[in-house]
């Protein structure tokens, strides 16, 4: 595997550890500051709201200009925001710092996906490794946060800036390895015919999928504790299963077409989520892993599909798929939290069972596009 893919995959992990850190910090905010479910989910919303708006905008910018300098800068911004989130006891300042981290994450993903596409030559397996890096970052987040919090609680969140420092160095190495143009005058648009209708359907499918993932990642630690399970372990397994799913998805797409893999994954997720919500005992952990794998098998495939549906706007496609649609899940979290405050967490999480079905409906008639870099279709 090319050195550049390895570097950008590890760099991706160093950024997405901060997306995972938001959910990992929620139980500590609840414990130390006595936040209710709605207030706790508001922290997730703060990380998601600005990110959901900013990420497509950064995608448009990277379609117009090559902006590799965004990679190290956005990595640092994502880390600094989370590092400062626990320092102040003010809820408002916590929201501000988490939002700053969200903007850093938003700035990183469209350009990194464009660079990964160049480095991978559009290969599913290579893009799977890029996605794996991000998922490993998610998986490490609960362990990293728990370690920092064990030192002295929320006031020790500045320790969490370390991955950002490492990631920024790796991003610089990627820029040098690929000899990417650093000047903003270099355009990065591609060629081909855009399929906006299919892109819109795919985006809706990703939105429904993201609400399930963000909803579970926000509340699964608290839900696990209510059921006598370990919350940190449950969140770790949710994120770790995603890492496994990303690699499985890229392998399956080399055997079947991407759209077929998406459809089957969405349907399988329905059963897995039902297990998380309703099955008691140790099997709870198994269903957490299965849910995560089901949600993340399509992840890298959604990115390449979006890029192939919008070949002239690769940055925009990446920004919407990795940003706007994913962040909408965070916007839905306060609604889940409000329902949980008024009823129970189990009641609030039960509607998540319907959403993978909606994703399947959106993907049901999607065509398998030609890969604009390889000139081949994945359809078999």
Automatic annotation (TrEMBL):
It is found in: Cell membrane. The chain crosses the membrane at residues 34-54, 66-84, 90-108, 129-150, 156-178, 199-223, 229-249, 261-278, 317-339. It comes from Kibdelosporangium philippinense. Keywords: Membrane, Transmembrane, Transmembrane helix. It is a multi-pass membrane protein. The keyword Membrane applies. InterPro entries: MFS, MFS_dom, MFS_trans_sf. Residues 1-371 form the Major facilitator superfamily (MFS) profile domain. The keyword Coiled coil does not apply. Pfam families: MFS_1. This is MFS transporter.
């Amino acid at each position: 595997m090319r050195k550049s893919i390895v570097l950008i995959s590890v760099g991706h992990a160093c950024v997405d550890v901060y997306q995972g850190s938001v959910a990992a910090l929620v139980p500590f905010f609840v414990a130390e500051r006595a936040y209710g479910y709605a207030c706790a989910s508001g922290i997730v919303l703060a990380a998601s709201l600005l990110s959901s708006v900013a990420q497509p905008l950064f995608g448009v910018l990277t379609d117009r200009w090559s902006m590799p300098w965004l990679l190290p800068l956005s990595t640092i911004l994502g880390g600094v925001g989370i590092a400062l989130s626990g320092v102040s006891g003010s809820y408002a300042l916590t929201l501000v710092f988490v939002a700053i981290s969200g903007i850093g994450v938003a700035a990183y993903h469209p350009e990194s996906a464009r660079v990964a596409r160049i480095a991978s030559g559009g290969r599913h397996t290579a893009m799977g490794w890029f996605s794996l890096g991000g998922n490993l970052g998610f998986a490490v987040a609960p362990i990293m946060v728990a370690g920092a919090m064990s030192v002295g609680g929320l006031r020790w969140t500045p320790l969490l800036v370390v991955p950002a420092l490492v990631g920024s160095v790796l991003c610089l190495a990627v820029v040098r390895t690929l000899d990417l143009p650093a000047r903003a005058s270099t355009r990065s648009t591609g060629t081909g015919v855009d399929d906006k209708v299919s892109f819109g359907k795919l985006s809706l499918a990703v939105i429904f999928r993201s609400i399930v993932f963000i909803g579970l990642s926000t509340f699964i630690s608290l839900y696990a504790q209510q059921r006598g399970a370990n919350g940190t372990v449950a969140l770790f397994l949710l994120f770790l299963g995603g890492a496994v799913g990303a690699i499985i998805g890229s392998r399956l797409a080399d055997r079947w077409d991407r759209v077929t893999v998406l459809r089957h994954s969405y349907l399988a997720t329905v059963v897995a989520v039902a297990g998380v919500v309703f099955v008691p005992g140790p099997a709870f952990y198994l269903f957490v892993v299965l849910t995560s794998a089901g949600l993340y098998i399509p992840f890298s495939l959604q990115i390449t599909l979006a890029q192939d549906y919008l070949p002239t706007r690769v940055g925009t496609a990446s920004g919407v798929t990795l940003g706007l649609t994913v962040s909408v899940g965070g916007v839905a979290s306060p609604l889940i939290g409000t329902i949980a405050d008024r009823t129970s967490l189990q009641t609030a999480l039960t509607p998540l069972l319907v959403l993978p079905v909606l994703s399947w409906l959106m993907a049901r008639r999607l065509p398998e596009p030609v890969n604009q870099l390889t000139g081949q279709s994945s359809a078999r």
